[in-house]
Write a structure and sequence with these properties.
Number of domains: 3
Oligomer: single chain
Order of helices and strands: EHEEHEEEEHEEEEEHHHHEHEHHH
CATH architecture of the largest domain: 2-Layer Sandwich
Helix content: 25-40%
Number of helices: 11
Shape: elongated
Length: about 375
């Protein structure tokens, strides 16, 4: 039997729990399914033995992968893993939380049993993989790699399911080239990548499952940039034009100025997607307020709208999108001079009765108003 010590402290990633460890192993299985043709992954749970099983049909582990930083996924944008740490850190965390992990590495005719051992070199407990090359196989497994995680209670398994869309019936959703918009209320404000939970983002009105190539996440898979979240969601809602229901939802989000569509004017202003979205927003605006309604965002704009039209006070962003529609018609407006124009007219009307000094002072004030 061979022994391999990992130079990773036992309390590494102290904030991680068994949920993070299982997520990492599940993610690796998904990634392997992506990068290797026909390398189908599987997942099962036995409530009686409290055993969780994850694996792949064709994957085989090599002991060289125990070297920190070793990976085969760094150049594949369709996978999440980049650091070569995945299954090693997952194993450390799960073992630390008393969930023993066994790797049935059948493709190499080996069984790996990691556990913490007091290291002579480091004078502390380190995760050590014991590799059995003479395991008495009773039958030929259907998969080259099978990972068993033990001591997972039913309650813990239910929590695992909640963080994994692959194990759920997600109900209504809308597919885009950036990922999926999750329409069920239970996903409001939840962010997933490749079906695995990343974080809560309370500003969202809907849930999102982004493709790995679209969202940069850190090693903890939890810290995501707010700008990226808003930008990506805006792109996804901008491209919903093939679905009438989604168009209406997008228009409502724009009207309410929600984070999901905060950058919808910026992500593709010159494209046909934006034009179609503006048409829907304009249409819903007319449906709600009437054919004679016009959007305004300032008091001055409101006062210049003629009596034949009904001004509706809205946000400037919403107004601009309504006005971007090819179907929008600019209403006739009443001329209403600005305060500066009124002062200039007053000077012109009264300059004969004003002293030269008074006129100069008024002109100086007008210059300051600019």
């Amino acid at each position: 039997m061979s022994k391999f010590e990992l130079s990773i402290a036992k309390d590494y990633v102290p904030s991680w729990s068994y949920l993070d460890g299982v997520r990492e192993l599940f993610q690796n299985a998904l990634d392997q399914q992506t990068v290797v043709e026909d390398n189908k992954m599987f997942f099962s749970y036995n409530e009686e033995t409290e055993t969780l099983t994850i694996g792949n049909k064709l994957s085989v582990l090599d002991t060289s992968s125990l070297l920190l930083g070793a990976t085969t996924k760094s150049d594949d944008e369709e996978t999440i893993g980049q650091f070569g740490e995945g299954y090693k850190i997952a194993t450390l965390v799960l073992t630390r939380e008393n969930h023993s992990v066994v790797f049935y590495n059948y493709g190499a005719k080996e069984v790996w049993r990691p556990r913490f051992v007091k290291s002579r070199r480091y004078k502390t407990d380190v995760l050590t993989f014991f590799v059995d090359k003479k395991y008495p196989w009773q039958q030929t497994p259907h998969h080259n790699l099978i990972i068993e995680i033990n001591n997972i209670t039913k309650e813990q398994y239910n929590e695992i399911v909640e963080t994994n869309l692959h194990l759920q019936d997600i109900g209504k959703y809308f597919e885009t080239d950036k990922g999926r918009i999750l329409l069920e209320d239970k996903y409001k404000g939840k962010v997933f990548v490749n079906g695995l939970f990343v974080c809560d983002y309370k500003d969202y009105q809907y849930g999102y499952d982004f493709k790995p190539s679209q969202l940069n996440i850190d090693r903890d898979r939890k810290l995501v940039d707010n700008f990226d979240l808003k930008w990506l969601a805006s792109e996804m809602w901008l491209k919903q034009n093939g679905n009438e229901e989604m168009k209406r939802i997008a228009a409502e989000l724009i009207k309410e100025n929600k984070a999901d569509v905060e950058f919808i004017k910026d992500v593709w202003v010159s494209g046909s997607f934006y034009t179609q979205t503006a048409e829907v927003v304009h249409e819903t605006f007319k449906d709600e307020y009437g054919e004679n309604a016009v959007p305004v965002s300032t008091q001055n704009e409101l006062e210049t709208v003629s009596g034949d039209y009904k001004p509706i006070m809205v946000s400037n962003e919403y107004k601009e999108i309504v006005q971007s529609s090819p179907k929008y018609k600019e209403p006739m407006k009443i001329y209403k001079p600005s305060p500066k124009e009124r002062i200039e007219e007053w000077i012109e009307d009264h300059k004969q009765s004003l002293s030269k000094r008074a006129i100069t002072e008024m002109e100086s004030i007008l210059e300051d108003l600019k």
